[in-house]
Amino acid sequence: MRYLSTRAEIDRVDDVVYHTNPDLVSISEAIEQGLAPDGGLYVPTHFVRPEGADHLDLGALPEVGEWILAPYFEDDRLADDLAGICRAAFDFPIPLRRLKGTTSVLELFHGPTAAFKDIGARFLAESLSRLARERDRPLTILTATSGDTGGAVAAAFHGRPGVEVVVLYPKGMVSPRQERQLTVWGGNVRALAVHGDFDDCQRLVKEAFADPALTQTHHLTSANSINIGRLLPQMVYYAAAALEYEREFGVEPGVIVPTGNLGNAVAALWAQRSGIPIREVVIATNENRPIVDFLAGAEWCPRPTVPTLATAMDVGSPSNMERVFHLFGDEDAVRRELRAFLISDDEIRDQIRHGPDRWGEVWDPHTATAVAVRERIGGDDWIVVSTAHPAKFEGVVEPLIGRRIPIPGALAELLDQPMQVTELEPELEALRDYLQG
């Protein structure tokens, strides 16, 4: 398996990519580089439908992970490590629970930072730690976050030799508990509070990758969903959940994915292309509306970020849209194949307030967007993707439900630690000075 940039010149026949641009890389190279040299995002040259799903133990996520990911690591120097990487990364439960009627919820928040980003971050950390042993200088991971990514990356990489982590987050635009998860680590993990929004943070990371002064002195890579090493492992929970649903109920489920930067939705689409029985991938967004407007017929036009209650989805310029366009081939095909629904803050509040009565559940603001879409579109056999624990957003959730939410143990431990953070202007020169200082 080889990988190419979304900006490479290609021809496409029956979902197989034929290259007029020869710059192909291995999965290890794609993971280490993060961003392609031309500024594009790495994608597989093709998708593989592995055989033998009927014999899988769907309750053993490492087994499912190795099964679906093996073709994407074939002939790579990480191939022999894949089983160990999966065992280390998928070592907490990801339950699929039946709710009312024909609706199920996929809980992705049982990892150490209580958000779905733990899954991809831990897989990436295991992969990069093995690759770092082969290098004579440390990897420097630059990560922009709208809330959850940075905490998951910090937890996954903290204390690992040969890896330095710098997390950039928008000052004042993440929840207090999210900020704790970004800033308490120290050691090889540093946090920068950027005077701007998430798009400023993401822009700084991309500019750093293109800056000769930094690339000459630092071996830079990314742990955002920019990095394909984050997206590929997210296919695993979609594979396990959809196969389990099909085994139990005899039908292919649709999945409703709350998303901001589109990484989680792309992982679902890649799983679908890899033969996983997913009927449809539906996108739930907050009031950041470029995706919804585009699918309704407007030109693709990223916009300034709009702050909402679902802060981790506050992305006005989702970078993974490049992967969506590459996957479907042209804009009309994207509009034919995808649906997206915008959920307002008032609708988020309504879902949280009435979640215990309607569904018997307490929702975080992001899962609430997916539940609102589920109620809007109707129909049968849907999996709602739950991306974060409501205790991470107690300032929003607790006043609406009228009671306190128990804090998961791992999160509670972090809240007692002092913050270590540096403020930064949203300029490349400021980031360069910080990294080289």
Task: Provide a descriptive summary of the structure in words.
This protein is an alpha/beta fold and 437 residues long. Helix content is 41%, strand content 16%. The model has no long low-confidence stretch (mean pLDDT 92).
Summing up helix and strand content along with how strands pair, one would put the structural category as alpha/beta
- Give the name of the CATH architecture of one domain: 3-Layer(aba) Sandwich
Query: What does the average pLDDT come to?
Result: 92
Total number of helical segments? 18
Q: Using only CA atoms, what is the Rg?
A: 20 Å
Which features does this protein show?
single chain; 437 residues; alpha/beta; Rossmann fold; 6-stranded mixed beta sheet; 5-stranded parallel beta sheet; 41% helix
Question: Could you outline the blueprint of secondary structure elements for this entry?
Answer:
Blueprint: E1 3-5, E2 10-13, E3 16-19, H1 27-33, E4 42-44, H2 61-69, H3 82-89, E5 96-98, E6 103-107, H4 117-132, E7 139-144, H5 148-157, E8 163-170, H6 176-183, E9 189-194, H7 198-209, H8 212-217, E10 219-222, H9 228-249, E11 254-258, H10 263-273, E12 281-285, H11 290-295, H12 321-328, H13 331-337, E13 339-342, H14 345-358, H15 365-377, E14 382-386, H16 394-401, H17 409-415, E15 422-424, H18 428-436
Helix pairs in contact: 2-3, 2-9, 3-4, 4-5, 4-9, 5-6, 9-10, 14-15, 14-16
